[in-house]
Amino acid sequence: MSDAILLSPGSLSLDALRRIYRDGAPLALNDEARARMAKSRAIVETIAAGDEAVYGINTGFGKLAQKRIAAEDLDLLQKNLILSHATGVGAPMSDGVVRLILATKAASMAVGASGVRPELVEALLDLYHKGVYPVIPSKGSVGASGDLAPLAHMCGVLLGIGHVRVNGQIVPAADGLKAAGIPLFDLKAKEGLGLINGTQVSTALALAGLFEIERIYKAAILSGALSVEAVKGSHRPFDARISALRGQPGQMDVAATFRDLLAGSTIHSSHQGEACHRVQDPYCLRCQPQVMGAILDQMRMAARTLVIEANGVTDNPLVMVDTGEVISGGNFHAEPVAMAADQLAIAASEIGALSERRIAMLIDTTISGLPPFLVAEPGLNSGFMIAHVTAAALASENKTLAHPASVDSLPTSANQEDHVSMATFAARRLGDIAENIATIVGIELLAAAQGLETWRPLETSPRLEAAMATIRAAVPRYDVDRYFAPDLAAIGALVQGGGFDSAVSFDMAL
């Protein structure tokens, strides 16, 4: 597979992770990775056959770490670990998230510090490539000592425990593996612990949130530009010299994008000089480079953290092949992921907050100069009045969802694990925030398109006219009141489905 993503240290780029999430890009394990794993595995097997007590290999777990386990019970210990830790609840995670979990867990183990056999990673890759996705409940992890419960559900299917989803259908794990020609797997010393320790679930959920927010962000840049045109707003706030004097990279990038999107607008040229009655536009228009630029900077910082985490080894204990040591530490603590997810939650909520303010401006004829509520015969028709209420409701909901999760902690495991990250929830709620802002931005796209058409036959820029055509292909113009909910569903699906991905481009690298 020449296009396969090679699982070698540091190989998972943001683009590679995006391909795994969206497309199930093929993965490959090379001989070097197998050799590294074999070396670390030999160390574990030596310890398992010896008399020294080493955590995670021949002891109990958590508060039971002082309990020595007999050599003949070590395999049973690993199975019991999976059974007892598979306590997840809630809706199953999506196929894209599960692909990220499988891929990042395989990549972590391929580094050769986990002490597992290469065959275990091969088994995970079989699940991935054959589309046999473990059914992983979305709730039940506090983000330290790793994502224990959800990862137990992930690896339990290798033992024939739990359920898998194949082509959208949920079947018992043993049946799904048999149909795919994947044999059941017998876990050996430390392998169960290596599977369930780690931040892969939190990281996968946060990456999925990032990838969804990226798409909506691009649509929000477009909707903001269309709103500028709809109210005959000024282009001067996007002057490169303004942003250069401040020096914030996101702001400069966003201002440049607005200049490109707005270039060649005949609507703009129609209200220059004495024809323009505006001194300054509202902040929701004028400060888009500053606000959307700050959001872009936060997304880039979060992306950097998540790429590092996706490539990291986060189970415990870790095998140091060069010295033969097995060292217990705390890489399973997902605080970096929790804080990155909190950054994303705040940033994404601001996308919706700014978009909602532009919708409010567009429907207010005293500010926009457009027909009240963007509809003919207002009074008889209510137009976008309640669509804005929906946007306001969702923007307000996001304020609560954006409350930082990383500032919370509840001790677990009889106070052995006395500070936890809450990263799994921090990352999971990004999906709810993204869904909300997709609807808000979708409403703005419709409202801005409605307002812009008021000025026909004048046209906006070529790039924004192309966006207008995309919008109108999905939702026709709103002339008089009609059943509005299907329109909102259609434009929201277009935003979430990447309908505007090609219209706006940003490099997510710092």
Topology of this structure?
Blueprint: E1 5-6, H1 14-23, E2 27-28, H2 31-49, H3 74-85, E3 89-92, H4 95-110, H5 118-129, E4 133-134, E5 137-139, H6 148-156, E6 163-166, E7 169-172, H7 173-180, H8 191-196, H9 200-230, H10 240-246, H11 249-262, H12 266-269, H13 283-286, H14 288-311, E8 318-320, E9 325-327, H15 335-363, H16 365-368, H17 385-401, H18 423-452, H19 462-474, H20 485-496
Parallel strand pairs: 1-2
Antiparallel strand pairs: 3-5, 4-6, 6-7, 8-9
Describe this structure in words.
By secondary structure, this protein is mainly alpha-helical. It folds into two domains: 5-193, Fumarase/aspartase (N-terminal domain) (Fumarase C, Chain B, domain 1, Orthogonal Bundle), CATH 1.10.275.10; 206-496, Up-down Bundle (Fumarase C, Chain A, domain 2). Helices cover 55% and strands 5% of the residues. The protein is built from 20 helices and nine strands. The strands form four sheets. The chain has a three-stranded antiparallel β-sheet. The chain has a two-stranded parallel sheet with strand order 1-2. A two-stranded antiparallel ribbon has the order 3-5. Helix 1 links the parallel strand 1 (5-6) and strand 2 (27-28). The radius of gyration is 26 Å and the shape is elongated. It comes from Novispirillum itersonii (Aquaspirillum itersonii). The modification 2,3-didehydroalanine (Ser) is found at residue 145. One of its GO terms (molecular function) is histidine ammonia-lyase activity. InterPro entries: Aromatic_Lyase, Fumarase/histidase_N, HutH, L-Aspartase-like, Phe/His_NH3-lyase_AS. It is found in: Cytoplasm.
